[in-house]
């Protein structure tokens, strides 16, 4: 069999890592394929790998149009612009595409998969979700005979790094974020990561595959980690919980519900001990039960490895459909309402005056909310004192009413903060 | 495309689970395949699923010979006998085989893969290793572009259940084993599980795929959990370790080294918190880093799910070679010697007399072994007292000499017990 001819668009960290992997004599990539062309904006920039042996294209779409390129690897990024143009050009003429671009796939996945199906090309994106962790393949192929009921993951390494660092060093969100930016773990504009948008892109992709539905990014409820304070992390810890940004999707008879939000996880939850920049996914499917996948969620090596895995699938002719099934068989799932009942964590910043605890607990009792644990400790600097509590299982609407009533108390000096308590592993079952 | 016609040989727990999955209207199996025949010894026996609709064969090899069966699912078990006969019959005539039989694959994998290659059939065995956890596919396909340096896993649910129960309930090995037998978690003759042989079969298969070598069961060094006592579990716990049966393979320039043995894991080791009957695998490969896979390691649902995943790969025409590569490209790896240096746990049962600690520590010092932690506690019933210690990194041969010298002391009343301390996650790197 002749070798697959690969063109690589985008020569940043991941592109460099991929070229290094191709240059490694012990890699199996050689047996099956070769890089013939590359595209990046600046030909002269020094890079981790020598690119002088490859044909050079300043325009990735021009490279994607070359008839002698069998696979375009798109590592440019961004939901639109040159990345989309290059991918569309390749798929239209029947060339395969391997991409690490979660924004592109979450936003335009359906139209790109349609182009691929029309021309007989494959569109693969293992590297778009979970870095080196084979989440896409696991959902497409390993649980292919099962019914997936829920997926829950830690899908953004930047947020997980920040939360882990805050907990282990006792430093503030802003402080840790600045360091993460210096070390290259966070972008200069960190909104995409800390706002939860990057995790939402990944969740929309995973849910499409897991539940056999069209990707529906607009339906993901998104809340970032910006309001999580050191106080929350410390006091939640005293109550037996760790705070993580959780991306969760569930399929029920009512439809699909997806959200990204900070949540409290009991220490024995399978995702509670995923630290630093690791990514992890828990899949709950019948009859296999709960499967957990953990690994490095970003960076040169892990992401290049996932690109290489897709390339090997193409070279060995075993690549499946973009979302696991032909587009025509993907359902348009109704959007399910968020869960009506659950356990919640509430944080109030109050003036240190007699009767505060009584006032708060009265408002909760009025809404028939039972308190599971209640904690007031002198951990905060400044005039206000934090009071945090977790509820027993109760109606979300009741919590919203109670919090509104408590916020109206004169003694409450900041808007209250509410986070859900993630269902425990045992309760984490498909419906 | 016409549907794949499947024959199922063996209608025990897993076979029943598979037929239930076929009977589930929401499963995708229907779209692609149908069960047309079954084989089991006793037609009349009541089963979890109704089998009256399928053709019946008392002899699985006879079923495997039927020209209208495209895939034979072998769930009989055993390295030889009817299982082997049925699998050979199918592969010879070009019918695919999906099997959960680790003994068969570890023992006869090469000759069976050769039959498959000769006839153009596929031989798949995701269900043979790790129950529902897709370890085989991950190694074959997801790290296909990487170089795997080491795999380490908890591959036997029975052993893991026994060790977990001993720790959490404080009951003895014999006591917990009896219960496990009553609950069906352990066989009447538990040797295959507690002796480490089942885990060794699985390890030989995983190492073949991970390192691109022929499976070499005879080369796995095997030690079971029979000598692990409650005292070991408790005192290791006080020193910050948990005891697990670890199956580990490593590929170095010197060859492949494989062993199954009880070992001490620091609480933060990725395998330390895998409890009960769960299975887990940690793969260390460059450049992806460390990947961890966790799930239920046995039983009806998980194993049937892995069989279904292989069937879907056949139906969607994406099944790879038995061991990931054509046989001709699998290497005959030299057998590497066991690691020369490491940290060790030593347990001595001694008479409670003055000078014991001095006598032991002198013998260790004589071999230049530094003690990392040392513990004597009154946890044992009877006249003898346990003394346990962990060493700093030292030569294995020195430990063997010191232990021999200590065993010769009159005050030592039982043969000493030595377990390795598993390298920490950070040290767990491919060479």
Give an overview of the whole structure:
Two copies of one chain form a homodimer. Chain A is an alpha/beta fold and 431 residues long. Chain A has three domains: 4-128, NAD(P)-binding Rossmann-like Domain (Rossmann fold); 135-297, Dihydrodipicolinate Reductase, domain 2, CATH 3.30.360.10; 341-422, Alpha-Beta Plaits (2-Layer Sandwich), CATH 3.30.70.260. Chain A is 34% helix and 25% strand. Chain A is built from 14 helices and 17 strands. The first copy, chain A, has helices at residues 13-23, 29-32, 60-64, 82-92, 102-119, 135-142, 157-169, 173-182, 191-194, 197-211, 230-238, 300-315, 356-366, 396-407, and strands at residues 4-9, 33-39, 55-57, 71-74, 96-99, 123-124, 147-154, 221-222, 241-252, 255-266, 278-286, 289-296, 341-350, 371-376, 385-391, 394-395, 417-421. In chain A, the strands form three sheets. Chain A has a six-stranded parallel sheet with strand order 3-2-1-4-5-6, sandwiched between helices. A six-stranded mixed sheet of chain A has the order 8-10-9-7-11-12. In chain A, strands 13, 14, 15, 16 and 17 form a five-stranded antiparallel sheet that branches. In chain A, strand 14 (371-376) and strand 15 (385-391) form a beta hairpin. In chain A, helix 7 (157-169) packs across helix 8. The interface between A and B is large, with 52 and 52 residues. Strand 12 of chain A pairs antiparallel with strand 12 (289-296) of chain B, so a sheet runs across the interface.
